[in-house]
Input
Amino acid sequence: MGVSNQVRWLPKSGNALGEYEDAFCRHCHLGADVSRLAVADGATEASFSRQWAQLLVRAYCDGQFANDVLWRALQELQPKWLAKVRPTPLPWYAEEKLQRGAYSSLVGLTLHARGEDEVGTWEALAIGDSCLFQIQNKKLIVKWPLDSSVQFNNSPILLSTKLECNEGLVKQTKSGKWSPGDLFYLMTDALAQYYLQAVEQGGSPESVMPDFSSVVFSDWVARRRSSGQMRNDDVTLLRVNLT
Amino acid sequence: MSYEAEISRANPSCFLFVIDQSGSMQDVMDPTNVQQLNEPVSVDGRTYTQTASGDTKAKGLSDAINHWLFELVLKCTKSEGPRDYYHVGVIGYGAQVGPAFSGSLAGKELVPISEIANSPARMEDRTKKMSDGAGGLVDQGVRFPIWFDPVSANGTPMCKALSNAYSLLSQWVPQHMSSFPPTVIHITDGESTDGDPTSVAESIKNLTTNDGNVLLFNLHFSSIQAKKISFPDNETGLPDQYAQMLFRISSILPDHIRERAKKDYPVSEGSRGFAFNADIVELIKFVEIGTHASNMR
Output
């Protein structure tokens, strides 16, 4: 399977690079049978969400979410998060925020190599408002889990380090097929909302999001933020080309 | 458009409490177990005819402000620590007029929220109900920060206190012209003993950043037995001239605060930032509505 990928990310305008709270991970190797990629968006209202988002994307790419029991994977991750963020006693406010938990969205894509067929298969998992898009023959054939720019709001359901908050959380999954030449995007919410809106307004699914080898991502985002087309939030783009 | 500035570290906003600490704040707020005394007793120049159990107004007020500061610090705290989205001050008036923080913040006027977070006067051990993760509740010990202690003595120099607030804000505002304007929460139980505060209150409200005028909220803890009134749009139901005066000097609620208040109260376009005879729960709710920390970047 030929998988090439490109990642671009940027913190919210006004924030330092170290305050970026999205996360991404890629486990894709040339010729491998399975590739996994994920992005997550740590909730800024909580503390230590970046560390939670990082653990989630790594766990996804390590295959820890492959089984059906989301709860079990989260149960294993929560103590790792705690060990990361509380190596020493914390000030009262950090301790109180820690008790209130960290939150993150997650979208992960698993690609299976083609066998004898011309097409390969994929499956994806999503919690919250980070999105997956698939473009085939210049058409946007998958927009998921949100499929309209008006569906984004400030209170998506997120994965929490407070395990009781995850009770009843339904893992959304989707699967499909891919062909050589297909393009996948994984995006966190502000970028995904912008992308969907631009396509809804008649933009071409391929050209709305340029190839950032030749376009400077930070300039491109800054223009859209200042014109009000894109919300000022951390943004992450993971672009996957399949051959 | 007004009251839409994003609150950020580059453009912080400001909350200033002006707190009545006169002798009458020793009165019990929601009295229980009321018993008549055989004969009147005089304490600090005031005469008492009955005893009662319950928190004093001063204690209710200090609890409310400590609670509010606790939540504001947490709202501003991100992974790396508290971000300075706000400067906060507390002016007390009673025996004297001036900054009312306790501990290492004593004497400080407007303090960045990160300094408040790191400088409580002391930590108290309390318990709170927490989920046990299996559908039940357990008591868990928590450390609760205290910045502000109950104080109550002497008269009610309201004009001097509001002049003090005006003086602080007239320095702060020109340095933060792009900021969401300051919010002043004035809490009192009675009559000013140093004149009519209307003109100084108007001066405070006339201070303006590019995003709007300073907001003045008044909370009246009266000793008159009358029903609670929150965010009225006229003064006709108010029981005395002091409540009416405090209503008149209160700001009309801007849209974002009215939207938030309408979840709990009947409000209209003319509603003002005024409440009469709030209990402790109402007091906390009023302060939280008036100072809702929204739109932080």
Remarks:
- Residues 3-242 of chain A form a domain with the Phosphatase 2c; domain 1 fold (CATH 3.60.40.10).
- The CA atoms of residues 195 and 201 of chain A lie 10 Å apart.
